[in-house]
Every structure is written in structure tokens, then in C-alpha cells.
Amino acid sequence: MNAKKILKLAGATAVVFGCLNAHAQPQQASNAAAQAVAGSSPTPAEAKAANRQLARNVRRAFRGAKNQGLRASNVTVRANNGVVTLTGSVPVADQIDLATNVAKGVPGVTSVNNRVAVRKDFSQRGGN
């Protein structure tokens, strides 16, 4: 019975000493941590602006890839947190892969969803 009392007393003493050694952190450190957390997640307006800018950068890269044969005037670019979605049509199948590769090369693009199709040529009318 005395051994139990001694163990309880030793445990309580350890807890008391542990509490005495603990002390509060300075207020500035907690403010800096709160600011770091707040700064890491953009506001909805900032995220929307970043998405628009990324889509613009991809379209600019498409214009720069015209010398490679890319004709992406019928391709719509949407961005959401680094994920770029391409929709629309191109005249030749090879340009689908080219558009994907050009978009992947833009800084800030994490992945590309390509929903681009080859546009049918309707210049030959009259024949089925």
C-alpha cells in the first residue's frame, strides 16, 4: 500500500516540476506564426486572379508556339490552382499533343486536362 502512495507522490511531483518548467511563448512568435498561416492560403479573389493570369500565360505560350505549327485559335484555356483544362478544336491531330506539351511548359502549370478534338473539315459539301 505504501508503494502505491510513493508512486502517486512521485508522479504528482513530476507533473508539478514539468508545469514549472513550461513557460509561455512570446506574443510576437504566435503573431508571426498566424501571419505565416494566413499568408500561405490566398483569398478567393487572389486565387481567381492567379487562375486568370495562369490561363493568360498559357494562351501567350500558344501564340508563341505558332512557329511550331500550333493553331489554337479555337482552344479555350481554363486554369484552377495549377490545373489547366483545354477545350475546343484544332485542325490536325498532331496539334492536340503539341498544345498539351506547350501548356505543360508554362511555369505554374501542375497538370493539363486535354479535351481538344480534331475539327472536321466541312469544305467538301454535297458528299456524304
Helices and strands in order:
Blueprint: H1 2-21, H2 27-40, H3 44-64, E1 75-80, E2 83-90, H4 94-104, E3 111-118
Parallel strand pairs: 2-3
Antiparallel strand pairs: 1-2
Region (Disordered): 30-49
Signal peptide: 1-24
InterPro entries: BON_dom (IPR007055), Lipoprotein_DolP (IPR051686)
Summarize the entry for a quick read.
Keywords: Signal. The chain has 128 residues and is an alpha+beta fold. It has helices spanning 2-21, 27-40, 44-64, 94-104, and strands at 75-80, 83-90, 111-118.
Characterization of this structure:
By secondary structure, the protein is of the alpha+beta class. The chain folds into two domains: about 1-40, no CATH class; about 45-120, 2-Layer Sandwich (Histidine-containing Protein, Chain: A), CATH 3.30.1340.30. About 50% of the residues lie in helices and about 15% in strands. It contains four helices and three strands; from the N terminus they run H-H-H-E-E-H-E. The protein has helices spanning about 1-20, 25-40, 45-65, 95-105; strands spanning about 75-80, 85-90, 110-120. Strands 1-2-3 form a three-stranded mixed beta sheet. The protein is rod-shaped.
